[in-house]
Specification:
It is a single chain. The chain is an alpha+beta fold. Helix content is 54%, strand content 26%. It contains five helices and three strands. Strands 1-2-3 form a three-stranded antiparallel β-sheet. A hairpin with a 2-residue loop joins β1 and β2. It starts with a helix and ends with a strand.
């Protein structure tokens, strides 16, 4: 069991290092695409695509003040995007009701495929 714990620890350390390296490479690739003014390009046998999306982030304090019923807040208990989307789909809440508690944050996704 000691070996498994040691292996687990070492793999987690490697995972952290890989995630850090991926983050730097991702930033460099996105920077290159932005400099070139392209969303899709081919480089060395790879297709690089960037996709712009918007992610909503909710302010818990503002959202709590907006919710019409404290029981709805109990259902959320903590702002959870999936639960909130479900309440919007069920028409328990409307986009207008929560609009002042929403911040739309642009994000760029990176996809790299081999040709």
């Amino acid at each position: 069991m000691e070996q498994k714990v040691r292996d687990y620890f070492e793999l987690k350390q490697q995972q952290k290092e890989i995630e850090q390296r991926l983050s730097v490479l991702r930033d460099d690739i996105l920077g290159y695409c932005a400099e070139q003014g392209v969303y899709e390009t081919e480089l060395g046998g790879y297709v690089v695509k960037t996709v712009l999306q918007q992610r909503k982030e909710y302010d818990e304090q503002k959202l709590y003040a907006i919710l019409p019923d404290p029981e709805i807040w109990r259902l959320l208990s903590k702002v959870d995007n999936n639960k909130l989307k479900s309440l919007l789909k069920l028409n328990v809440l409307s986009e207008e009701q929560i609009s002042s508690a929403v911040t739309v944050k642009p994000i760029t996704l990176l996809q790299v495929d081999k040709l």
